[in-house]
Amino acid sequence: MKGDLKLRKDVLDELTAEPSVHAAQIAVTVNDGIVTLGGDVDSYAEKWAAERAVKRVAGVKGYAEEIHVKLPGPFERTDADIARAAVNALQWNVSVPSERVTVMVQNGCVTLEGEVSWQYQREAAHDAVRQLAGVKWVDDEIVVKPGVSPSEVKTRIENAFTRNALLEAGGISVGVEGAEVTLKGTVRSWVERDEAERAAWAIPGVALVDNHLAIG
Fold first, then answer.
1. Could you read off the pLDDT of 109-150 as tens digits, one per residue?
2. What angle, rounded to 10 degrees, do the helices at 79-92 and 119-130 form?
3. What CA–CA distance (Å, rounded) separates 210 from 123?
4. Global pTM value
5. Less CB within 10 Å around the terminal CB: N or C of the chain?
6. Hey, what domains does the chain have and what are their CATH numbers?
7. What is the 3-state secondary structure (H, E, C) of 146-194?
8. CB contact burial 157-169 (16+ within 10 A = b; e otherwise)
């Protein structure tokens, strides 16, 4: 219990330190290292930022996110308004091949579909729409099209892990089947776990990263 109390304080401190989050609106409970976030926030971007703040805290074994997006009156938008804004945001973003990404909006929830060549393009599309007023959720169904052999993908990922100062590469094993990558082993924190996944996604030809890394 004492450990949970300290972890809850650390999570609250991290949320307070995150400028894009109104920490007073978010409830935090901790049970055996599992953090649950609740409450209401004004935007999907704030919900997204709160989730990532929790993952930065050492000692978090897992988390459940039960935050609801309740938009203030001035930020309410029709689905048609959101769709137009999303299409424009994708077209204005130089990292997104907008002609290859389609947008569907229903009840404030944005679905992105299409096929891109790189993971950074997929992430850029998500980032472009998550900040838009009226968005309550983003469902990213964009597919990264494979372009290189599995053996080359595996070698590039392992080399990237070795170069990365944030990773203990010796604790991570990499499996590649087709365009799908599986990461196994033990890392020191959620930050290191996310960094390993990010580094794997950055390699051309990766269409899926199945992250089984445990927090040691």
1. 999 999 988 888 999 999 999 989 889 889 999 988 766 788
2. 140
3. 17
4. 0.62
5. N
6. 2-70 (3.30.1340.30), 76-144 (3.30.1340.30), 150-215 (3.30.1340.30)
7. CCCCHHHHHHHHHHHHHHCCCCCHHHEEEEEECCEEEEEEEECCHHHHH
8. bbebbeeeeebeb
